[in-house]
């Protein structure tokens, strides 16, 4: 119960900060619009977005959000040494990590909705025909990026030289989840069977759910 209470308090605290500052929200919206505009200008206004191209656009944009915003999610605790106070609260420290993952996933889901809206109604209608599977892919892909980004943010927060470590890890670690998510999304839009790529996405999420939880206490003490 103490860990659950701590999780709720951290989520509420960060949402209140976001409501006042709106920095992550503005970055999420800005990156979503920028990525779509850059793709459209590069490809030309008359180019039709096929499933593979639209899928790549969606998940590249999610990668931008993961690298630029989510990896800074622990930076909010720097002023006034807020992390020390959170660590002294009753409940495990892992509750802080899981609260940050939840918030990161919220931002990613908002970004996904924005990008899908900008991509075009045709592909969105195709996705709605298999809405449950489509949301599952979005959720699993977003969860993988959120887990990696939040863990990298925790590592950068506690390790010297984080200006080098954080961007490097944030660029390399999400590659498997981005590949699996993009392939799964394209297969769904093409009406193909969701098999190996979806299984890889689930496996990657499990690994990066267990790994940060196992190493989080160690990272905290570094």
From TrEMBL:
* Top-level lineage group: Bacteria
Which keywords describe this protein according to UniProt? Answer: Membrane, Transmembrane, Transmembrane helix
InterPro entries tied to this protein: Cyt_c_biogenesis_CcmB
GO CC entries: membrane
Q: Name one Pfam family in it.
A: CcmB
Report membrane topology.
Multi-pass membrane protein
What is the annotated localization of this protein? Membrane
| Protein name (Swiss-Prot/TrEMBL) | Cytochrome C biogenesis protein CcmB
Its source organism is Sulfobacillus acidophilus
